[in-house]
Fold this sequence. Notes:
The chain is of the alpha/beta class.
Amino acid sequence: MRLKRNWRWLTGITLLSLPLLIADSCMQFRMSSSEIKAYFDKRGLEGQESFYKIGNRKINYVHVGNDSLPTVIFVHGSPGSLSAFIHFLADSSLLKRAQLVSVDRPGFGASNFGYAEPSLEKQVALLKPLVERYTDHRPITLVGHSLGGPVIARMAMDYPELVDGLVMVAPSIDPELEPNEWFRGPLALPFFKWLLPRSIRASNDEIWKLKPELQDMEPLWSKIKAPTIVIQGDKDKLVPPGNADFAERMLVNAPLELVKKEDMDHFVPWGHPELIREAILKMLDPSTAIKLSAN
Length: 295
């Protein structure tokens, strides 16, 4: 009888665990190292995947291009990974002008997958060594999509000496426009969070804390002086278009250009990559940078 009960208990756990394991494997939003290597090999590019450690954290990233050129660093949203921008790292027009880097933010990709860092201040401190690695290759332009937007903004606030330009794509930056999603608190509780796929767990942990993090940033926007381009679609249902208006109000000391498109949704890197490409090339063009600074 005891053996039979144990068998039923084991079977129940297995039946419960199997769907969770399948969900976790299907919702990782990342490429393996072998997939990343195959992607660049197929295109005849030497993409180098690297990492560094800071405390108990590992930060993973990919570098492509001529290291004598200026640097562009891509920062993904939530959930996501460095692979969200991998097609930009194979863009020949960008590779002619810059070395390109895409990073796994804390909790995503191969950077302690599943264990997010909700504090934007701590998150940019973890990413700071990556930016510092390229200080000899200026200018350094940061490109951030969605939650990557406030991350790069915070980097420019806390370490302005490291940042020469910002391209914020559908950025979640206005605390008043953050949706009141009641379910995120319960999902962050220990019992429920461990039932979630790791990518969703990490995403929920940081999105749940995003509004107070953005509120803490409000007095710091005047510290940003780097030229900034904000790209926003009017049909974005995940990040309200009013976030672009917030950027215009808050970036009082930074040359700013707003790029708005009526028929564009939130997924700009895949639906309208040309807008991001054009913004990056504008940042890399000395004559354009002068014009931006004069505005």
